[in-house]
Amino acid sequence: MASSTRNGTTRPRNGTTPSRRPAKLSVAKRRQILTGARKVFAERGFEAASVDEAAARAGVSKATVYNHFDDKKKLFVDCFAEGADEMQEALRASLAEPVGDVERDLQHAGEQILKLLCSKMAVCLYRQAVASSARFPEVGETFYERGSIMYDTIGSYLARCAERGALSIPDPRTAAAQFILLCQGELVGRARLGLLREPSDDLVRRTVQTAVATFLRAYAR
Question: What pTM was estimated for this model as a whole?
């Protein structure tokens, strides 16, 4: 909540920094703030982190942070959303056009999915979503929406594989959800619990091989 000063500027009730924004905000500065704040939230969590720490890590003033974000909650939610968007873009960029060897194509896609879900950023985002979604439904909604986009991305990839004649996939999105879950094996769960820092390439390869074999038994022509 905010209170008003004599000149009409709003001020956070628990702080002294005005929330009035300049007429034009810098996109680059906003990204700089989010990059620094994300590191602080990842290390300390929402409750323990402070706007002062986020500003210091970003190399900006506290006033600059409030020029771009209403409060710590908005900063946290936007950090989460940007991190999820970066993951989606990384996945899209890693998926080359299918070459026609369906087993090879699925193996490549599965390894990219598994490496991404076991990555430090993905694990951090998952933990933050679980810890914060009850208090901040926006975080849970963002996590779910980005997951849905991943299904669409992989579904489109599977549909392109099917166009080459090796797969029969009546519902690409459902098949994508199944394929993503198969590729996780036990590695993603272990990573989220802190029991696996980074799976080796060989472990990733063998886990995805099992997933691909199972998937092909269901969808191969």
Answer: 0.81
